[in-house]
Amino acid sequence: MSAPSLIIDQLNRTFASPSGPVHALSQIQLTVKQGEFITLIGPSGCGKSTLLKIVAGLDTEFEGQVHLNGKPILGPGIEKGVIFQEPRLFPWLTVEQNIAANLSLKKPEIKQRVQELIALVRLQGFESSYPRELSGGMAQRVAIARALLRNPEVLLLDEPFGALDAFTRAHMQEVLLDIWQKNRTTMLFVTHDLDEAVFLGERVVIMNPRPGHIREILSIDLPFPRTRTGSSFQELRRLVLQAFEKVDGPAIDPGAGI
Amino acid sequence: MYEANPSPKVVPLPELKVKPQRKRAPRPRQILLTNRLIGWLLPVTIIVIWQLAGQADLLNPILLPTPLDIGEELISMLQSGELMRNLGVSVWRVVLGFIFGGSLGIAAGLWVGFSVKAERLINPSLQMLRTLPHLAIAPLFILWLGFGETSKILLIAKGSFFPLYVNTFLGIRSVDNKLFDVARVLEFSRWQMIAKLILPAALPNILLGARLSLGVAWIGLVVAEMMGSSSGIGFIINDARALSLTTVMFVGILIFALAGKLSDSLVFWVEKRLLRWRDNYEGEGGH
């Protein structure tokens, strides 16, 4: 097996609020192997987005240890690619320019890489379109290409397909798996959609709120490409759901894709 | 897949036999022409009525000469070179004052926009100065600097400063924080943050400020030239008033109107070119 890439050890995160400190993450312990696809699932408020922000380096006010390939995480950087819930493109730049962003398209090697990535995320013909001319799914693919251009060691995705319709979402999941199989980038994918978590992840990390903690980590030993309708898929999906039902109270938001 | 394919195959529809509609929708070119002409409707009507009323001796020519008389005056002033010479002087003053005051306005707006300390330090004072009217300040400038060019250009600069200052400041402060996170993740340098994120995001506001500044610059010019000057369009108007040459006054006003509109259109054109990426409501019946 590959070497560990991301090591999260004894991670705690507390927010100050007017009504006293809120314990958002408690004793998070997670080791992600090089090239692994991890999905994080849990109801809102379980701290999964906070965890992602910490790994991204956008939140440094935590206690504990987070190491990426042996180096502690001190701030944001290109080795930790982030895909947010919204595409967050620069509206004044074209698709091509958005992917390049602060890198110069005048350099032939950058130009060529951008072309390759546009092909990878299947956006040929839209190089000079502005974000306002793109659909939600297309814009999110530009954001993915933008992160991939920097050859990240890990790609952090925070409910990236949450705002898309079911068909576009299924398509985007396939695009993402395609990219993962070609590049073998380590993936940390936050979702509240059960099907998405089981369809994409090699391991599903199940989180629960109050305080946010990891309840269970399930291995999904299904070969890719997976089919959602297969009996083993449905069985694993049931196992994940069961993990939530063990908890008191409503563990999952109604309509959270179950 | 469905959305990734830029050119889906178009299947020709079988021709349907439908009765031709009685009212055909106007073609885009026709709409464009109507939209352009519609702005002329009101002024042309007023001028025609004005001319007819003048010819019917309903108007006192000393108070309100007819459009044709004003046109004749315009031609003779153009032929003598008097108009172009004075217009040149006025345009030069506006351009100089606008560039001087406007660039200071952008610089101050950038500084105050970037730094909360600078905002606390100078914004209150500047906001106080902003509301001072030209007419209140002009005598002081003349007292300090005399009737020369400096006092005039300074007055125009004072007017051009504020709209650009306020809008640049506002533009910087309204940059989306979410895009800042993106820029941090992508490791933008400090310079790239400014050049590739903050300035493009603030550009719509800065251009709006430039448009307003240019408008105020023309107003400042009129005040400066009418307070005391021996050249410029404002001087022509003031001089003609003393001699009761109403047609000349009208020519001066007309020139101001045209110059103001022309400079406004210029900024508008620049705005359209630079802000093509914007996705805004353009009004009903727009194109």
Can you put this structure into words, describing what you see?
- The complex is a heterodimer of chains A (258) and B (287).
- With 258 residues, chain A is an alpha/beta fold.
- Chain A is 31% helix and 25% strand.
- Chain A is built from 7 helices and 10 strands.
- In chain A, the strands form 2 sheets. Chain A has a 6-stranded mixed β-sheet with strand order 6-7-8-3-9-10, with helices on both faces.
- In chain A, a hairpin with a 2-residue loop joins strand 4 and strand 5.
- Chain A is globular and about 50 Å long.
- The C terminus of chain A is likely disordered.
- With 287 residues, chain B is mainly alpha-helical.
- Chain B has a domain of 195 residues: Orthogonal Bundle (MetI-like fold), CATH 1.10.3720.10.
- Chain B has 10 helices and no strands.
- In chain B, helix 2 crosses helix 10 and helix 6 packs antiparallel against helix 8.
Key structural traits:
heterodimer; A: 258 residues; alpha/beta; 6-stranded mixed β-sheet; 7 helices; 10 strands; 31% helix; globular; disordered C terminus; B: 287 residues; mainly alpha; MetI-like fold; 10 helices; 74% helix; 0% strand; flat; transport (chain B); cell membrane (chain B); membrane (chain B); MetI-like_sf (chain B); MetI-like (chain B)
In short:
Chain A has helices at residues 48-56, 95-100, 108-120, 136-148, 166-183, 194-200, 231-245, and strands at residues 4-15, 22-33, 37-41, 63-68, 71-72, 80-83, 154-158, 186-191, 203-208, 213-219. With 258 residues, chain A is α/β, with parallel strands linked by helices. In chain A, strand 7, helix 5 and strand 8 (186-191) form a beta-alpha-beta unit.
N-to-C SSE series of chain B?
A: HHHHHHHHHH
CA radius of gyration of chain B is 26 Å
User: Largest chain interface and its two residue counts?
Assistant: A-B, 35 and 28 residues
Distance between the first and last residues' Cα of chain B: 32 Å
* Count of DSSP strands of chain A: 10
Measured as a percent range, the helix fraction of chain A is: 25-40%
Strand content of chain B: under 5%
Mean pLDDT of chain A, as a whole number?
A: 86
Estimated helix fraction of chain B: over 70%
Query: Low-confidence runs of chain B (pLDDT<50, min 5 residues)?
Result: 1-8, 13-21
CATH architecture of the domain at 79-273 in chain B: Orthogonal Bundle
**Shape summary of chain B:** flat
Structural class of chain B: mainly alpha
Q: What is the count of helical runs of chain A?
A: 7
Shape of chain A: globular
| Major sheet description of chain A | 6 strands, mixed
Number of helices of chain B: 10
Quaternary assembly: heterodimer
Spatial sequence of strands, sheet with the most strands of chain A: 6-7-8-3-9-10
Poorly predicted tracts of residues of chain A: 253-258
CATH superfamily of the domain at 79-273 in chain B: MetI-like
Domain ABC transmembrane type-1 (chain B): 83-266
Subcellular location (chain B): Cell membrane
Family (chain B): Belongs to the binding-protein-dependent transport system permease family.
Protein name (chain B): Sulfonate transport system permease protein
